[in-house]
Amino acid sequence: MTVTAIVVGCSAGGVTALQTLLGGLDPRLAQALVVCCHRSADDSANLAGVLARSSRLPVVEAAEREPARGGVVHLAPPGYHLLMESDNRFALSVDPHVSHARPSIDVLFCSAAQAWRAGLVGVVLTGANTDGAEGLRLIRRYGGIAIVQSPASAQAPAMPQAALDLAGADHCVPLEAIPALLNRLCLA
User: Fold this and answer.
1) Kind and range of the H or E element at 81?
2) CATH number where 69 lies
3) Which domain holds residue 37?
4) 87 counts as catalytic
5) Which of 1, 57, 128, 188 satisfies CB 3.0 to 4.6 Å to 12 for a cystine?
6) CA pair distance 69, 135, nearest whole angstrom
7) Residue 102 gets which letter from DSSP?
8) In what residue span(s) does the CheB-type methylesterase domain sit (predicted)?
9) Is the bond preceding residue 96 a cis peptide, omega within 30 degrees?
């Protein structure tokens, strides 16, 4: 299987988890990487700047109608759902919150699963609710790969546990092992 894109979802404890994840990714990755981290609409923190200090890949905030570019980490902006369109471009939505969040991991994962099908890898990291579980199930249904941070290694284990309970996983590993696993899947 050829990996086209990676989607990552996280919530409570997510910034630290993303720093670990992005810091271990090979800078040669050619896949688009799209991240949904729960953030409030009034979040003025420069998350892209914070994560860029740990990442060997460029980190940008996704924008309406921009294409998902390979080798770039795209962040869901605060206050908007981030969706993937079939033409590999982003769409932003202010539809109601899903799982008490906007941006919602499920919204991103479900649209990405339909856009990228079997070429997609979905990653669920630490978080305190169930967002991402339904989207990960759809990723697997379309033939994509599901990676879940082992709940025991998560700062907030509810989200990875919900993903395991609903969707299962192709790989359930500690956070520190996820970057090497993604490198193997994407550079093989």
Assistant:
1) strand 81-84
2) 3.40.50.180
3) 5-187
4) no
5) 128
6) 22
7) S
8) 1-182
9) no
The one catalytic residue in 55, 81, 131, 150 is 131
Q: How does residue 42 score in pLDDT terms, banded at 50, 70 and 90? A: confident
Supply 56's token pair: 């060997």
Mean of pLDDT over the chain: 96
Residue 97 annotated to the active site: no
Distance separating alpha carbons of residues 88 and 108, to the nearest angstrom: 13
Residue closest to 124 by CA, chosen among 7, 33, 13: 7
Cα 100 to Cα 139: distance, rounded to the nearest angstrom: 21
CA-wise closest residue to 121 among 47, 63, 188, 176: 188
Please state the domain count of the chain: 1
Selected catalytic residue, list 38, 74, 81, 106 = 38
Percent of the chain scoring above 70 in pLDDT: 99
Whether 11 is a known active-site residue: answer: yes
> What tokens were used for 14?
């997510």
Catalytic residue, chosen from 11, 55, 111, 150, is 11
Opening angle at CA 21, ends 122 and 142, nearest 5: 5
3-state secondary structure (DSSP) of residue 60 = strand
Q: What is the pLDDT of residue 21?
A: 98
The tokens describing 116, both together, are 């990228």
Query: For residues 57 and 117, what is the distance between their CA atoms, to the nearest angstrom?
Result: 24
Q: Each residue of 43-77: pLDDT tens digit? A: 767 899 999 999 999 999 999 999 999 999 999 99
